[in-house]
Each structure stands twice: as structure tokens, then as C-alpha cells.
């Protein structure tokens, strides 16, 4: 039985969080959480929290055994971009794009 969890409007670039997602895709839950807890990147903390939420959803709604779960799909879609300006020389300005992500984790039983 598939279980999902989503985090929307997360203030991290999709490109940065996809690097971490590639490492946990297809892994068992215990192995994925262990890997994320020893990764020092910002996206690892966010992804670990999201996987914990998906595990709690599976336990609460479906009543599945947590030890039999694995990460079936995990992906990051691009959210809205916050646009800011940085002053530059000679009165010019440069755009700063603060990107956001919509993260989704789908777990399934082995």
C-alpha cells in the first residue's frame, strides 16, 4: 500500500535537494534515515523530516509494518520564486532569485 507525504513552498532550490533525493531513492526506510542523519546538507534535514512524516502516515492510516517500507518515489518540483534586487555599480541592479520547492515522498511495502 502506497503512502505519501508532501512539503510545499520549502525554501531550498530543487536542484540542491535532488542531489540528496537521488541517494535515498529505492532504499529501505531505516537505511535512508540513517544516511540522512549523517549528511550535513540543509536538504537532508528537510528530507529526513518528510520521510518521518510519511512513515507516520503509513503507520496511522494504513497500519502497515514500518520495517517493510522502502522509498518508492521521491521528487522535487519547482515552487514559486521570490524575486529580490541587489544594488550594483553605476546605479544598476541585479536580480536575486530565491527559489522554493515542492517535495514529495512516496513509500511502499517490500
Structural overview:
The chain is α+β, with helices and mostly antiparallel strands and 110 residues long. The chain has one domain: Ribosomal Protein L22, Chain A (Alpha-Beta Complex), CATH 3.90.470. It is 37% helix and 35% strand. It is built from three helices and five strands. The protein has helices spanning 14-24, 29-37, 42-62; strands at 3-10, 69-78, 82-87, 93-98, 101-109. The strands form two sheets. A three-stranded antiparallel sheet has the order 1-5-2. A two-stranded antiparallel sheet has the order 3-4. Strand 3 (82-87) and strand 4 (93-98) form a beta hairpin. Helix 1 (14-24) crosses helix 3 (42-62). The longest helix is centred in the middle third of the chain and has 21 residues, at 42-62.
Amino acid at each position: 500500500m502506497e503512502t505519501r507525504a508532501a512539503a510545499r513552498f520549502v525554501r531550498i532550490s530543487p536542484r540542491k535537494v535532488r542531489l540528496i533525493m537521488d541517494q535515498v531513492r529505492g532504499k529501505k526506510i531505516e537505511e535512508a534515515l540513517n544516511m540522512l542523519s549523517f549528511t550535513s546538507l540543509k536538504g537532508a534535514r528537510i528530507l529526513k523530516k518528510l520521510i518521518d512524516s510519511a512513515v507516520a502516515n503509513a503507520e496511522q492510516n494504513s497500519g502497515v509494518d514500518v520495517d517493510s517500507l522502502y522509498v518508492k518515489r521521491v521528487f522535487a518540483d519547482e515552487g514559486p520564486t521570490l524575486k529580490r534586487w541587489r544594488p550594483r555599480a553605476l546605479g544598476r541592479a541585479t536580480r536575486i532569485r530565491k527559489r522554493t520547492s515542492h517535495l514529495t515522498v512516496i513509500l511502499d511495502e517490500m
